[in-house]
Amino acid sequence: MTYISQLASMVGQEVELKGWAYNFRSSGKIYFLQFRDGSGRVQVVYSPQDIDAAQWESLQGVRIESSVIVKGIVKAEPRSPSGFEISGTSFTMVHAAPEDYPIGKKEHGPEFLFENRDLYLRSQTPWAVLRIRDSVFFSIEKFFHEEGFIRFDTPIIQPTSCEDTTQLFQVDYYGEPKYLSQSGQLYSEAGIMAFGKVYDFGPVFRAEKSKTRHHLSELWMMDAEMAYFDQAMNMEVQERMVKRIVKDVLDNCKQELAILERDTTILERIVSEPFVHLKHSEAKKILHDEKLTVEPVDLLGDMSTEEEIALGNKYQLPVFIEDYPAEIKSFYMKRHTDDAGVLRARCADLIAPEEGREIIGGSQREESYEALKQEIIDRDYPLAEYEWYLNTRKYGSVPHSGFGIGLERTVRWITGVHHIRETIAFPRMLNRSTP
Ligand code: 4AD
Ligand code: MG
Questions:
Q1: Which protein residues touch ligand 1 with a CB less than 6 Å away?
Q2: CATH number for the domain that contains residue 67
Q3: What is the CA(272)–ligand 1 centre distance, in A?
């Protein structure tokens, strides 16, 4: 089979393409078929003298999203976005769609488009965004294999919580409650004791009560975990991974970025310039002293949406925010006391510029059996359910670190789309669980 993506090497030849009519128009005796085949879009131009009469008749029955097979001669056409045009020599209707294709040329609101997401996927914006998503996914897989990691899949049904216990989806099947994974991290920690460096990549679930353009309830996360890595080595891997992701998109997704009208100036800088590092205390001080936010700055609080966006705007580069107060971070993070006497986690969130917000959360892990067990008890977590996890510290504990990157947050930032729902084929959010 021939695809539109291969036309560059076929100018002057006759090709057969199988796909769909996404639009059509007729001017006098000439018929313009707007054709797509999944790999791209091209215009096919038909004149009645060039095809047989029955086929010309059948062409008049085309409606938006009819499936069709076209044949014709490939011509270079600089005025067309694809760079090519086809002079039609043959036409076959595979399935004539009815008149009422719901997504027309008029503007639709996002609710309508996502209610019809199964059809909206065929439009150009989702096509470009989801192809960039595929590129990001593939870059991550390639990066980790080149770095000597192995893919280590972690379970979705889990007896415990990894992150915030208020955001768990409960599963009632085993006689006692289990939960959908919030992150594979705890299992990856067991994995590194067997394999040294591992990553997983799969759906995770957050029963988010927040209805924002940054939150999904089902998202894809890649967790990486490394034995004998401290937090500095952890951040170094993250920076190289993000540079690789961005470089691959810039190199391989030019057409997609053009469709999205993405200004790539900052993305290009990111490939070569070092990322910014700020301690949480420094970041808060800058936000406060330079009055970068409308809301007052809580010096010991989490980073708000407004604060993350303000820091991204200030530096125009990804920013590692390090050493959050331990109290507002997860139980497994290694701790230390700073000069001001505040107990802090040895962690960093990576904030993407251009309103990308937090795309990565990572930390060095507490390696002491006693300290970790005490933290589980202090947080009132069910200790018995964490016995297997504590074995990682009981038998041959090592300093280790890891991180998790949210695929959709990353794709939202790189594509520049407004809302995170655009970055996954069938979004699941607080107010959406269909189609
Ligand atoms: O910061 P989080 O909660 O970190 C963890 O789950 C760690 N266990 C990861 C690890 O160290 N292995 O989540 C990691 C990333 C966030 O930085 C964000 O990109 C994404 O997952 N994320 C979400 N994306 C969309 N919607 C949500 N509700 C998200 N929650 C987290
Ligand atoms: Mg986080």
A1: 162-163, 182-183, 185, 206, 208, 215-216, 219, 221, 223, 358-362, 402-404, 406, 408-409
A2: 2.40.50.140
A3: 26
Q: Which residue has the CA at smallest separation from atom 31 of ligand 1?
A: 406
| CA–CA gap between residue 376 and residue 331 (Å, rounded) | 7
- Condensed to tens digits (0 to 9), the pLDDT of residues 99-144 reads 999 998 678 999 999 999 999 999 999 999 999 999 999 999 999 9
Radius of gyration of the chain (CA): 26
Say how many domains are in the chain: 2
Distance between CA atoms of 182 and 204, rounded to whole angstroms? 5
**Which residue's C-alpha comes closest to atom 29 of ligand 1?**
215
pTM for the predicted model, two decimal places: 0.97
CB 62 within 8 A of CB 96: yes
Residues ≥6 apart with Cβ < 8 Å to 254: none
Q: What DSSP designation does 96 have?
A: -
Choose one of 95, 110, 140: the last residue of a domain: 95
Query: Probe ligand 1: pick from 186, 219, 308, max atoms within 8 Å of CB?
Result: 219
Do 80 and 127 fall into the same domain? no
